[in-house]
Amino acid sequence: MPDRTTRPCSPGAIVQDMTDRMRALVLRLHASICQETPDLQRLEEQVIASLTDLGSALLVSLCQLVVPCGPPATSPCACGRPAPFQRLRPASCRTLLGPITFQRPYYHCPTCHHGFAPLAQQLGFCAGSRSAAFDEVLALLGATQDSFADAAVVLERLTLLQVAPNTMRAATEQLGAVLAEVEQAHLTALQADQFPAVAPPAPAGPLCVSLDGVQAHLTPEGWKELCVGAVYQVRACRPRLAHWADVVQAEAISYVAELGSQREAFGWQLYAEALRRGAATAELVVVGDGAHWLWELAALHFPQATQILDWFHATEYVWKAATTIWGETHPDRSRWAEQQLQALWDGRVTEVLAELQHHQRTGDAVRAAWTSFTNQQARMNYPAYRARGFPIGSGTIESGCKQLVRARLKQAGMIWQADGARQVVKVRAWLKRGRWAEAMAHRPRRQRAYQRRVPGREAPMVGQAETAQPERVPVSPEVLAAVRTELAAGRTTHPWKRAWSKRQQRQEAETRTATSGVMSSA
């Protein structure tokens, strides 16, 4: 294994070192080929592994170039006092090219007892941890693969790096937690009327909003709902041969997602995303099914929007009612359903309501359709919506529920902690909305604070106020003597002191017998 510790610290020395390494690499591969002619796949694997080692050595050398040849005698501490230079201290970090170790100046403040390495802050890494690029790849694979175990396998095949599935989980959930904090900060600013006043230009057509819920298995709650929202634009598409097909197609889709128990926050998140997309000056359209919470959020955050009941949601009610009235196999079932759907497509909702009223005694499905259409009648003017180029179907949000939740959180046997599910969905939402680079920019820099304990005093953490330590209650000598006697007796009778083999047990029995015989003869 090549040495990945400190390398030469001058450009000329780095060039010479890399040249020597490349020459040794070629000679080693040539000798390997001469001994046994491998196939192309084996050659590829050997070259990738060798180039990874070579790149790791180069990375160490480049990091070492940043280290000053003569470190400053002092460096400003977070407490405002100068911290004297201690020594060149080695730091290790896991990167996309494997683990690296190099020396960097280490300082320690005698005032607050805080140890730090300015170079670590400059390079943006934390000793003993992972690089930002490595963490990004872990989070990306952890959020997009079917499971964290599968993500670890894909990483190993692509980079020859081995990580545990829990490492994948930690990197993904840490990024999700950061993105959740960013969203919360935006909501706080929005609710305080401190949202950025610079609005993006309004889209050319209507700005559409769709929202829905999807179930996921959480522990210990059981199956719970996650809310998913989509903000998108539409463009006209070629008419389809199927009856009652949408005439517009969604594009430029962005998503938001939140736990169903936080619907209020979800509504604000969807509102903030719509504002980012130009909702302040655009014509708004909200498409959804018949859920009451959906229209409550729409009325609260988008009161001027045109509300549309999903066409396919309405067709489901019609077909269930037709089955209840005529049965599964009756030929009039399809004829009756087609007539009612044609009436809805043409905007004759009152005729459909009258027909459902006529068959209301037939069963619950008919009454449910009549109740739904009565409540949603104002959202069912489909001819007018088509004429204005509005979408009438919720296929966009159904696709969003599948991409954000079902494809990752509802694999066979998956049970999630609520926080873990929320964080993974957040990462997927930022990725699907095309804001991955922005998500990476929101990650805080990792820092490590070294605290030295001073006799008689507990050093506070940096930025933390020093608190008074509670006084110790003195213990009398009699109590101390009794405690020490009890501890000494416990050491001889502790279970770990017992004989663990038959030979030892026989020896102890013989010793006890001999001792008791001597005592009885005396």
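^ that was protein a. below is b, sequence first then the tokens
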Amino acid sequence: MELFTDIDAQVQTLRALLGDALEATELVPLIESLDDARAVDAITAATALVQSGERIRAAATGVIAARSSREAGQAGLAQSRGHRNAASLVQQITGSTRAEASRQVRIGESLLASATTTASSGPPVGDSSSDDEAIRAEKPVAPWHAGLDLALLDGRITPAQHDAIRQGLADPPLAIDKAEDADDAEREDTERHDTERDDTEREALMRELWEVAADQLMDAAAHDTPEMLSSAARAIRDRLDPEGAARRFQERYSRRSFRVWTTADGHKRGAIDFDDEGYLWATTIIANAMRPRTGGPRFVDAEEKARAQALTDDPRTNDQLTYDLFLDLLRAGAVAEAPAVFGARRAGVRIVQVVHGDGTAEPIAHAEDHLHAFPAAVAEQHKCDVGAVTVAVDSRGNPLDVGREHRLFTPAQRVALAIRDGGCRWMGCDRPASYGEAHHIDEWVRDDGRTDIDRGILLCRFHHMQLHHGGWRISRHKKDDFVLHHPRGQTFALSPRPALRYAWAVAEPWRKRFHAAA
């Protein structure tokens, strides 16, 4: 649908819902009078209208940014209007925050780069069968994010989703240090040309991998939040660029710090800049202690249930409880009994690493909770410290079955579910695996259900209860994607998390590997 045709359609929908002669002061009571379905229709139409406007704004922002470049100096568009840069001008016009204005400029510049390349390439001139390498070399190559930019302009993704994917994936790494290569005056011409050809082919392959990754993340945008897309994009980037992942890990590690100070009015303050492992440990400990308050799995053991109820009834705020937990850890140290400090059980961090049949390990591992990526050295360090559990899986992360001997999923099976699912599989839910409850998609009695991994799925407590009490159900044909069935008949595919598709796609080479995961 054409842009203004779409805008007109949304305006007509809102007119039909709210009427023509609508004063602004009548808006809230009028929508209050709508039934549930029509209220949802109103916000859906208004959102589509806003998103159409955002597409126009993004395109205009890209042009403004180009006309406000540093090279333009005082003659630049933003500078001529008294602003330091394009973001400042956009902030004034839109009334947004500085961070939001900067995001709009990033998106606009991305759109303009794709549009400029597409326009420059143009239709072929003269003999289209020409083999002139010089002509082909001069032809501009579309950036890897061109499809992402087109999806935004077409309305398939929102600006927030675009920015999450674009920033999370960043740009593919260059094949070599071009400047260093250019300074090598001793290199023979033939060797240099061969190297340049290899570098060009590798850069083309990396660009293709980033394009495939963007396509997968755009598919996930239909049900994942921008925060989830950003996290998945960073994890995928680390798997595609393990050397860069190791470098970024070390950079974050070198920035670690813990600072305490006293303010002028006597307040005692502190600030921590975590490295990746430290952050994972801290969040895991806090989540383990606070889980009864923050929606973790339900407790079966009577003693654990009583402890969870006591925590729920505690008058302290979550932040106060976290602070007291931190001080308890400092006081007690490693000699304390686990229940005295950690709550129901000692907190633990699980690192997942793919090891091939020939014994070679992948260069990137990931945390079971939140799927944070880590260099292989972190997995090796954890293996030396606490050992490892081997779980055999297929190319989609599906572990082996166990059978009907157990009514409930065993601890080993729950580990396998956590590795395969990465957390709650309900649409748009970001609850990590440690918050998950194992759900049988086949009823134990009614369907002669088996406690097999391929017939189980991880759901957080809220969505597990929603499914059982709200008339929803989940089905699966063999080992295809799980399918969520709405009580009214709609169905939704519960696709694997994008980052995990890359973890389990173990076929080489890279090109086949990620096309197979698409």
